[in-house]
Amino acid sequence: MKKDGNDNNKLPTKEMNNFRLMTQMIELKKYKKALKTCEQILKKHPKNGETLSVKGYLLNLIDENNKEEAFKYAKEGIINNLSSNFCWYLYGCLYKNYKNYEEALKCYMKSIKLNKHDHKAIKEASVILLYLNKYEQFKDLRIDTYKESAKGPKDKALIIFAYHLLKQYEKCYHLIKQVEEDLSTIDVENDQGDKTNNSNNIITANEKHQLLVYMSEILLEGKMYKECIQFLNKHKQLENDKLWYNQMLGLIYLYENDMSKANKYFKEAFSVNSENLNILLLILFTEKEIYIDEEKNASNNKNGALEGSDNASLSSLFYLDYKDEHKMNEKVKINENVKVLLHESILDIYGSKKNLKLLSYINKNILNDYVCHNLEMKKYDVYTVSELKNFTNINPINPENFKKGIDESSVDKFIELLKEDIKKECQNISNNTAENYNNIQWSNKIGFDLFYYPKKRVEKSMDILYFYKIKNLNDKEEKCIETYFTNLQNKYENSNLLKIFPLYFYNETKFSYYIEKLFRNLCFQKCFTIFNYIKPILTYKNVKILLFLLHKYIKNYDETNKLCEFDNDYLSRDNNSNSYVINNIEKNDFEKREDSINETLNGHSDKNKTLEEGSRCNGTIEINNNKSDEVESEANYMSNEKNKMKNMIGSSSSLGMYVEGMQNGNIDNKNKMTKGTTTQLKDKKPKEEIKPKLNKKILTKEERDEIFMLCIYSFISQLYDYINCVKDSLYFIDKCINNIKHKINEEFKYELIFTKGLIYKRNGNYLMAFKYLDICRNHNIGDRFINSKTVKVGLKCGLIKYSRKMATIFINPLDNNFLKNITDTQCFWIEYALALSYFNRHMNIHLNGSISEQGEKLYQFKTGSSNDISNDISSAINLGQVISDENGREQVTLSSKVIADNDLLSRNEHNDYSKSLFYLHLGHKQFIDIHEDHLCFYYYVLRKVLYRSYRHLLYMSSHIFSSRFYRRFGKLLIKICIHMNDIGMKPKTEQSKNNKKKNKSNTTPNPTEDKEIYEHMKKDPLENAMLYMNTFLSQPNADISVYALNYEIERRRGNDYVKLINIINEIKKLFPHHNYYYKLAPLISHYLYSVSKDNVDDEKMKEIAKNLNTILGLNYDTYNEEILKKERTNYINNFMKFFNENKKGDLRYLQSAFEIYTHCNEKISNNILLNEYMDPRKNKLGRCFKFFTFLLNNKKNHSELSEATNRFKELCKEAYPLATAFQ
Question: Which of 787, 804, 821 is at the close of a domain?
């Protein structure tokens, strides 16, 4: 007897129990046992829809390759039971597992229609709606669910979140009132309460706090300031978070234009965190009661306060567009008294906008608009702050200028000489065009001291600065700033921010005093990173002053073997200084502490001598081996100085812990011992003898002074390297390393060796840098920072296998799978560095030209003279030998074994590019995983009411593919695919048996890695490149280089001229200023050339003619071959004219001029092959490497570039003598 169709969907009691057991096994991830149970049910009921759907879902969980079979059973289950919401839910889960979110959403919505109480489907649909940015549908779904569920505060909070995403603040405010009423009636439990209770009527104290904070921020964002103040006053428990609470009130009163109250609350917030730059800037902006004129500050009467105007207050020096009045790409309207512009990002209380460094062409940036329009730098093709920094540092300053006046006897004479030199330099402005100005001349023309960046190009991500000085301060303003920050420093003595921030605004005399005080403090603390600490304030004047001060210390120490005394004659040198400041800052705080320690220790050594005599005779200092003990001991000694010695220090136990209660010669056995002490006192008598700790060391004054000078030498060597004086930099670092006299200071030698390695790295000698960094790595094998630096440099110079071995130190020791470890730890830098290293092997300009094809000869580097630590080098990785030639210059040889181990000879271009693609694919997958993190975070949000964090997570995840980190991966991946398409697809080349035997002992590669590398090569490289290009184009901040790569892909895929002209139009929208941008010129030239050589339909030609008229500013009805050739010739001539007048010497534009001819396979004109166009001194070292690589790659097809390559190489030798690429 046949059963009805409806009976197939009903299971008997036994099978139903097995079905429930099967679902429990799935939750416990016992998929194979669950599949056996499923098959047992299907033997008796083969057409049961829900069981068939579960089988399809299980097949997917067991193996993702069972995709076809899994969907087959899922579809069969739905056909047999169309009315089952469970079948539709599992069908949606299958689509979700394969990341087809649109289809998964349809299935979940179908499941919700069949059963409105299907909470799993509702949650999954909510997550996907948020992932797809369908906030309107998400709001409707949550409202429908709210009507059918219990109406607790958590449910209402979720609807508030939905309205907040849509920026409907009035409806949010209406619901916030209801939630407030509900919170006042329900019970609030502690965080340690019953966590199993999921009732909506119970909320923990932490969840309530998170919800109140989120609702208050919604009111602030919705500009409901009065309501927000009432809300904060009503919920006093929010005051526990003092930083957030005071910052919120400060922002509210700022928007209400109540500056005095805003300033009050910002100061309260700053007292909690005195290193917060945003709050400090807001304090300065709202400081209306501090006047620049001292007379107004002295008057305390009401009339005097009313007479003071905004222009006379400290706040008038700063400008912040907190009312959002400024419009993008317009001139900034500010008063003449404004000296500092503040970026509106300091108003962001949560901080999500600061965590992503996006492109600056689309986002509103008041600093960029000031540079472009107010300074009128757009006529020089400068539109952003970073471009201004790069443009004003194109023409280098002669390094000898920095050495003028260094031997002067006093700071006053040196500053006078400095001002005279600047005047002479500025007098030469009339003889030069603006494009030939150097940093000094630009600073004089613009009106404020520009930062000096001669070494490295500033990235576009550096445009988002918190503040930017646009004018120099006058004497009264500097005096006001000095007094103000002196008072703050006395109040917040431990704040490093307050020490470094005012240095931006001081004149030469004030800067020389305070910077000397600062670096003396840091040197006494054995700080070898002073250069990084002071780097953001390095202008031309500041660099010269620092060099003078450092040379003064070195000269005095060489002559007298003593430290130079601190100059306290600041009051006589600066007429505008405050006597209050001088009286309170006579001596460095750290030096005072050092002197007090000396006095205390000398009191220990000899009780009969006074403290003064002891400090003069002994001069010793007691320090701990670690920083925590040092701080503790110094604090103890400071307190000891105030009391008697015998009453201060307790007895020492056998474990080195102190026993309390030992005063006046009595001790009580009932006194509690210090925590961690296990011994008990046997005698009631105190110990007469106080034993020192064994883990302390005693430094003499000479040893302490030597450490101080080591810091000075490290600082001055990095400073000379910064201004491109490489010989002086190596001289001072070598002198420092070789002249360490005291054995106790030998450990600091490796700090200096590390600095020397960085100097070689910054100057393009990566193998020497690798050697020195590897010495430091072997000395401190547990330092992750040094290990990472060494790995990066090793990959730069092609030592890939060595670098991989180093990188494995910090991976899971129980798992030798290198790829799995770097994936789990999300090491983007190692993935990108490996991919770039494989890509740069063809051509690796640092190694490729000098490696012997036979592998018998040794690879040689020549660097500047160096006579240090050759023994340490040979004890590191055995790369080769260190030999000095007749001229005293050092030759570093790379042994043939190293060449063979790292496959530097037996290289296959196709294999290396495919390996590079593999690591880039790996990084791309990790970005996708991060992008999908909020899919899992949603469930935690519902339980813990973390809507504030989740909203900012949605913001960040929606912009993650616009971040500069992903752009590096994506652009390099597309470039490799394009290049592999150009060289043609080659079959995988297998190694011979002999090579396998040789490499077997050196490496043990993962067997699955080789298969995965070639998996992605099944498709056409251009199609592979378009997958990632589409990801770029879907983001709001796609930059010009992305569209340029898109053009390169499309012109190789086919002659779709409509697509190509549309890409050029998109670039024109991003850069509308002119048609001669260096990334745009080769594209326009190639387009005009290719269209003229091909026959195009009339309809397409009309659209092309319309776009060309828009881009080129022409008025043709149609374009024929003659017109296209004519306009291309005119365009090339206009581009060269723009290049000669505005960008001569810029290698980016010179490479663009070459590409105009190379893209069309034409002979390059001899007019642009002159030396005057190839000036490496006007370009950073990285740009010279890129241009040199371009010449090497194109000289085979264009013989006229061979001679230009040799000439450029010789020019680079003079500009960058240490760079091995040009040797």
Answer: 804
SS (H, E, C) 936-968: HHHHHHHHHCCHHHHHHHHHHHHCHHHCHHHHH
Comparing CA positions, the residue from 362, 475, 110, 261 lying closest to residue 1035 is 362
pLDDT at 893: 56
Nearest to 947 by CA among 143, 133, 157, 131: 157
Identify any residues that bridge with 189 across adjacent strands, giving them in sequence order: 204
Of 946 and 355, which is predicted with more confidence? 946
Whichever domain contains 122, its CATH number is: 1.25.40.10
If asked whether residues 1062 and 1201 sit together in one domain, one would say: yes
CA–CA gap between residue 277 and residue 246 (Å, rounded): 15
- The SS3 call for residue 621 is strand
Nearest to 1076 by CA among 1146, 1180, 1123: 1146
Q: Long-range contact list for 92-97, CB < 8 A, 24+ apart?
A: 92/121, 92/124, 93/57, 93/124, 94/56, 94/57, 94/60, 94/70, 96/124, 96/128, 97/60, 97/64
User: Does a structural domain hold residue 1071?
Assistant: yes
Q: Average pLDDT, stretch 190-196?
A: 49
Q: What three-state secondary structure class fits 865?
A: coil
Question: Dihedrals φ, ψ of 451, to 5°?
Answer: -70, 145
Residue 28 tokens, joined? 């416990």
Could you say which of 804, 820, 836 is where a domain stops? Answer: 804
Q: Which helix (H) or strand (E) is 1131 found in, with range?
A: helix 1121-1142
| Token representation of residue 1100 | 């397409």
Q: Report yes or no: 974 and 1045 within 8 Å, Cβ to Cβ.
A: yes
- Which has the minimum average pLDDT: 17-31, 708-722, 859-873, 1148-1162? 859-873
Q: What are phi and psi of 468, to 5 degrees?
A: -150, 120
> Would you say residue 411 has pLDDT above 50?
yes
Q: Which tens digit of pLDDT belongs to each residue from 153-170?
A: 888 999 999 999 999 999
Q: What token pair was written down for 387?
A: 């471009």
Least confident of 509-523, 787-801, 814-828, 850-864: 850-864
Query: Would the CA dihedral through 806, 812, 817, 821 be positive or negative?
Result: negative
N residues, the chain:
1223
The confidence score (pLDDT) of residue 986 equals: 57
pTM of the predicted protein model: 0.84
| Residue 295 belongs to some domain of the structure | no
Alpha helices in 132-276 (DSSP H): 135-147, 153-165, 169-185, 205-221, 225-234, 242-255, 259-272
- Candidates 72, 77, 145, 86; CA nearest to 114 is 86
Residue 868, domain member (yes or no): no
What is the C-alpha to C-alpha distance for residues 735 and 743, in angstroms, rounded to an integer? Answer: 16
Check if the beta carbon of residue 458 is closer than 8 Å to that of residue 390: yes
> Do residues 284 and 481 touch, judged by C-beta distance below 8 A?
no
CA atoms within 13 A on the CB side of 477: 22
Residue 470 in contact with residue 338, Cβ under 8 Å?
A: yes
Q: Is the pLDDT of residue 865 over 70?
A: no
Residue 708 lies in a domain: yes
Report whether pLDDT(571) > 90: no
The model's pLDDT over 1015-1026, given as tens digits with 9 standing for 90+, comes to 555 567 888 888
